[in-house]
Design a protein that fits this description.
alpha/beta; Isopropylmalate Dehydrogenase; 10-stranded mixed β-sheet; 14 helices; 44% helix; binds NADP nicotinamide-adenine-dinucleotide phosphate; binds magnesium ion
């Protein structure tokens, strides 16, 4: 077989622990035998981030701006325990945070649906993609624990000295206060990422806030989305046969539960935090969730939504067998390869990405899967495979598709 050619490289961001092991296995078994794989490699493993004073993370994000598409392995976000474990010079920031700060943009999470792993919600036939605005609101708020009676005010002082002042509350006794913000710029880039991703994936876009109660704050989100839609996306949406739909957050929740799926649900920061955990657990497994960062600068970074699966890694280090699910990491690769193929007009590469995903799904639907899925599968005849053997089984299925 002739290997499929690539013209431009993917930015490859290697990572940590069990997912780093899966990463190499996926490349060896599912990519290198079929593709003339071109990547620009960045080692984001914690040891190398520490050696480079985390420069490597920034460089990988800048390379993504240059080439347009990245694929990322899960990485450790250091905490106190990791400081000792890896003898770190500093408690380096979350790589995802650093990358997002450079690329800007929104994270879209989508469950991978297979027969035999049924979502808790019976009518969800198609995936629901959740888009979470990742800036501001309660995540960047300041809070005061009010000690007793007194007056609380909201004060804004403009650069030219003009003042806007509102009384929040005349406290008669103790209480709590919170001040939060967002910026038009961040809301606009959130909106643009959502509209472009909807067009990209040909799915309807839903957006919801509580604008009936929050007549200035949430209403601004609603207005900005509408303005950008009318100005820049309406025509393209109509051409693509998809719709943009705004409603109240409580109405959205009720409709989502009754829907059959197949759309993108854009949420403000807090709603997205809560709803993404609900949607992903209702679809069955965190190990079956993909994630893509879509930047308003037109660049994409694909990864699995789960972490480095540390518990399995320590078993692996002790020489014990593991059964770690590599599906979301395989889909990170296929997502990135498909995007590369679309950008570079390489239909064979797009076709390979489709085949890789189909082979992965088919392998599971034939009853060959890792332990986490076997525990929740409704299939009668299930064979539990270890980490390596699952990837080998996908390779066998993939070979049959050529
Ligand atoms: P995790 O890696 O997501 O794993 C938590 C548990 O979920 C695992 O112990 C396992 O349960 C199950 N699980 C997750 N992915 C699985 C898979 N692919 N196959 C089978 N089971 C899977 O979270 P964590 O252990 O709390 O975090 C480990 C490290 O990941 C942390 O250092 C954290 O900073 C990092 N992290 C990175 C990212 C990222 O890079 N995007 C995201 C989240 C966390 P059982 O043990 O019950 O089998
Ligand atoms: Mg959460």
């Amino acid at each position: 077989m002739n290997k499929i050619k690539m013209t431009a490289p993917l930015v490859e961001m290697d990572g940590d622990e069990m997912t780093r092991i899966l990463w190499q296995d996926i490349k060896d078994e599912l990519l290198l035998p079929f593709l003339d794989l071109k990547t620009e490699y960045y080692d984001l493993g914690l040891a190398h981030r520490n050696e480079t004073n985390d420069q490597v993370t920034k460089e990988s994000a800048e390379a993504t701006l240059k080439y347009g598409v990245a694929v990322k392995c899960a990485t450790i976000t250091p905490n106190a325990a990791r400081m000792t474990e890896y003898n770190l010079k500093e408690m380096w920031k979350s790589p995802n945070g650093t990358i997002r700060a450079i690329l800007d943009g929104t994270v879209f999470r989508t469950p991978i649906i297979v027969k035999g792993i049924e979502p808790c919600v019976r009518n969800w036939e198609l995936p629901i993609t959740l888009a979470r605005h990742a800036y501001g609101d309660v995540y960047k708020s300041v809070e005061i624990k009010v000690p007793g009676a007194g007056k609380a005010e909201l004060v804004y002082t403009g650069a030219d000295g003009t003042e806007i002042r509102e009384t929040i509350q005349e406290f008669k006794g103790a209480g709590v206060l919170q001040g939060m913000h967002n910026t038009d710029q961040s809301i606009e880039s959130f909106a643009r990422s959502c509209f472009s991703y909807a067009l990209d994936t040909k799915q309807d876009l839903w957006f919801a806030t509580k604008d009936t109660i929050s007549k200035k704050y949430d209403h601004t989100f609603k207005d900005i989305f509408q303005e950008i839609y009318d100005q820049d996306y309406k025509e393209a949406f109509e051409k693509a046969g998809i719709t943009y739909f705004y409603t109240l957050i409580d109405d959205a929740v009720a409709r989502v539960m009754k829907s059959k799926g197949g759309f993108i649900w854009a949420c403000k920061n807090y709603d997205g935090d809560v709803m993404s955990d609900m949607v992903s657990s209702a679809f069955g497994s965190l190990a079956m969730m993909t994630s893509v960062l879509v930047s308003p600068k037109g660049v994409y970074e694909y990864e699995a939504a789960h972490g480095t699966v540390m518990r399995h890694y320590y078993k692996h280090l002790k020489g014990e067998e593991t059964s770690t699910n590599s599906v979301a990491t395989i889909f990170a690769w296929s997502g990135a390869l498909r995007k590369r193929g679309e950008m570079d007009e390489l239909p064979e590469l797009v076709d390979f990405a489709d085949k890789l995903e189909k082979a992965t799904v088919q392998t599971i639907e034939e009853g060959k899967m890792t332990k986490d899925l076997a525990l929740i599968s409704s299939l009668l005849d299930v064979k539990v495979l270890n980490s390596e053997d699952f990837i080998k089984a996908v390779r066998t299925t993939l070979e049959h598709s050529f």
